[in-house]
Every structure is written in C-alpha cells, then in structure tokens.
Amino acid sequence: MRVAAPAIFFARREGERCELGPGRMRRDPVRWPSGAVPPSPFVRRGRPAGAQQDTEADPARPGAMGSKQIAQETFDEAVQENITEFEMEPEEAVREAVLQFESQGVDLSNIVKAVRPPASENGQRQKHQILLTLESLARAVAEQDVAQLPQQLLSLAAQCKEQLAFRCLAGRNGAYPAVLSACQLAAGDRELLLQALCTLAALLDGQPDLLDAAGRELLLRSLRERREDAEVTLAGIRCVRHACLKHEHNRQAFVKGGVLPVLTGAITQHGSAAELVRMAASALRVMTFDDDIRVPFGHAHDHAKMIVLENDGLRVLIEAAKAFTDNSGVLSELCATLSRLSVRNEFCQEIVDLGGLNFMVTLLADCMEHPDVVKQVLSAIRAVAGNDDVKDAIVDAGATELIVLAISHHLGNPQICEQGCAALCMLALRKPENCSVIMEGGGALAALQAMKAHPREVAVQKQACMLIRNLVSRSRELCGPILALGAEVLIAEARAAHRDCDDVARAALRDLGCKVELRELWTGQKGSLAQ
C-alpha cells in the first residue's frame, strides 16, 4: 500500500496546477496547454451549432457561453497521466479526468471520454478508433478505391451515430472533405451514393457548420436527379434537415437554391413512404425556425410564406395526413409543421377550408393515448386560433371539450398542460361566448389542476394565469365561480415562485377583483425603471 508523502505546496501563476506532492489532488485551476481552446464569447449557448437533442423536448445544454473548452489531445493526456502516474485502471482514469475538468467548469460535451490505445513500441501515439476509420476512408477516397468505400462509410456512419463527441472529433480531423469526396465519386453508383449520403447525414447531425457551398450544391443536385428514388431522397432530406437546424445561413442558401419545391414535391411523389414524409415535413418545419443566435434576425416568416403561397404547402401536408391515419409519428410531425405555417390570418382560415381543422379534432379524439401527438395537435389548434373566425369554428367543432379532456388525461405531462392551457387561452381571447363554453366544459378547473400538479413549471403557471385572465376580462360573472375553485391562492403562489409570472399573475388577480398592488414603474423623472 502506498503512503502519501507530506503535502508540499508550490506557488504557481494563476491558471496553473498547485501540486501536493506525489499524491497531489488536482482540483485547482487546470493549466491550459497549447492544445486547449480558450473560452470564446462567440461560443453558442446550448449545444454546438445545430446539435440536436435526443428528444426535442429536452435539452442537454453543453457548451454554455463562456465555458472553457479543451482539445481532445488535452483530455487524452490527462487520462494517460492518471494511468501512468497514479496507477489507475482505465475506466477510473477516465472518470477522474472528467471530474477534474468539470470541476473547473470545462465543457466536455465534444470530448470522447474513452481511453486511447497505448503507444506502440516505437513510441508513436495511437488514435481513437473513429480516427483510424477516417484514415481508412480518406485513403480509399484518395485512391478512388470504390470497392472499399462502402465498408468504410458504413463504419464511420455507425460510429458517428453513437454520440456527438465522436462526430465532433471526426469533423475536426477532416471527415467532411472525405465524405463529400465519397459522395462525388458515387454520383453514378446508386448504392454507394445512398451510403455516402447516410454517412454525411450522420456527420452533420449537430455540426451544420461543416457544410459548404459544394455540399449544398451536391445535395440539391442529388435530390433533383434522384427524386424517383425514395431511399436516396430520404437520405438527402435528412442531410438538409441536419444542415439547417440552428444554422440560418444554410437555411437561406438552401431556400435560394430551390429546396422548398423539392421538399413539397417529395411529400407528394412519395406520399406512401412514412419516414420520407415525416422527414420532409420536419425539414420544412426547420426552414421556419429562427434559432441561430449568431445572426441578428432570420427569415423564418418569409420562408413560411414561401412554403404556403409558392409551394401550396398547407394542401400538401393536409393531403399527406390522409394516408397515415394510424401512424402517430407522421401525424405528429405534420401537425407540428402546420402550426409553424399558421403565421397569417388567411393561412389559418385556409387550413380550416382544406379540412385541416376537422383532421386535427379527429386526430385529437383518436390519439388521446399518444402524448406526443396530443401535444402537437394542441399546439396546432393554438396556432390556428390566432384567427378570430377560426376560434368560433374550433369551438363549434367540439374541440374545447377534447382540450379539457387532454389536460385532465395527461395531467402529469407539463408540456401537454402548457399547450392545452395556451389553446384554451387563445379560444377565450376577445370571445366572451367562448369563455362560457370553456367554463361549462371544465376548462378553468383543468387549468387550476394543472397549476397544482406543476408548481415549478413556469410555462404551465404562466399559460394558466393568462387563461384565467382571458376568461374573466370580458365576463365578470365568471369571477365568483373561478375564485370558488381556489384560483386566488394558486395564482398568488405562482407569482411568488416565478418572476416571469409576475405580470400575468398580477393581471389575472386584478381582473378577478382580488386585492393587488399596482406599482408605478416610471414617474417621468430621471432614473431607471423600478425593478
């Protein structure tokens, strides 16, 4: 058993390790060697540009603005040091290295947390497996060895799909040029092109910055030339989607290149291919995002208008839904895309005229046991209810009862509670007659139950407060029944617990006739607004 030597402290400059003898504990600031990447004020908040979550609802948030970044080599050296100097087992060495860096606020989301193979006899450092695969692929591309390309592409794609860190390591070491060259070599070989596009999609997932003009041109050309081929089209559209998520420049470049008619055309031409329709609808939806914080503003609204006005997007999506009455995944995606396209009054009305409202109400009734579908349908109803005439059509179709049922049935799901309250809130806005229907259907009670079930969910609390306010703002006779349900206490608790709820909670209490302190934020005199 080793005995730790007496602690010997060495003064170091700020940023260096402070050593405590042979058994030193490295919990103090780590020295940043030449391989380290210093923190940047331009690092995107959240994941690296375009990084996709495993589920869209839940974000992991590595790479926060201002967090420290290190190179893969730096991490590997720390692991190797733990093994050689402290005689740790490989797994323990990795855990210790992770703990060391994370304790210093280092973002390790893009780091492969594995033990690199030991150095060879001649002292040459070994590489991670994905880099060895990448070298084999690059060699096959350079030699135009078409026989070896499929296996190398398949292997690289499989490793890229494992985790974002593998994709980032490959991307930093020249994977994109190699895969793009493979795509170009495969132009006349359908099977090879399909595998190359699948590998490109796996690589671009979470790394849209890799794609350049040549890659965009290749994707658009492949989608046009191979539009009859459902599998190649699906692989190409998946590349487009990954390249446009959290990347405004790629979105605008693809739209200018004519990708919108390609996407709507794919849905129409391959209307029976469930995964292709789902992916194409998702790609259309991504074109309407404004999620790239590196640009001052995006073209989300313009893209939504182009999809509807120039490419008949609403009709395409609603017609596509008729072929998948039993496929909740496709229907959920189609509803999500419809909600993103409901950006103008006339678009909301067109959805109703095309039968989209009846489709959504029927879908909500038939898929009540599928929370993902319920959430997206509620979101779509909320969006189209922005049109006052459509509000009446929604209520006449019996949707209010279904919305209340959805909230009650999925009371433990905060996202459904949020979207349900938001949909009812829109239906009640400026419509006293709808408020009576919502109240009689148990909408206020359902909203208050949601507040009780999710006291820490600010979005649920906020939407419920807004619903209560809309119910009573033009229907004062509803104040008494709502107060009798215990609304005042719940709204006051939401206001106290969540700063973001202060304004809406105060407004709800005021319109309910409760005592509330109204503050004068500015009196016209010099000074800042009251906090």
UniProtKB/TrEMBL annotation:
Residues 20-30 have a biased composition (Basic and acidic residues). Transmembrane segments: none annotated. PROSITE patterns: ARM_REPEAT. The keyword Repeat applies. Keywords: Repeat. Residues 20-65 are annotated as: Disordered. One of its GO terms (biological process) is hematopoietic progenitor cell differentiation. Gene3D superfamilies: Leucine-rich Repeat Variant. InterPro entries: ARM-like, ARM-type_fold, Armadillo. The keyword Cytoplasm does not apply. This is Uncharacterized protein.
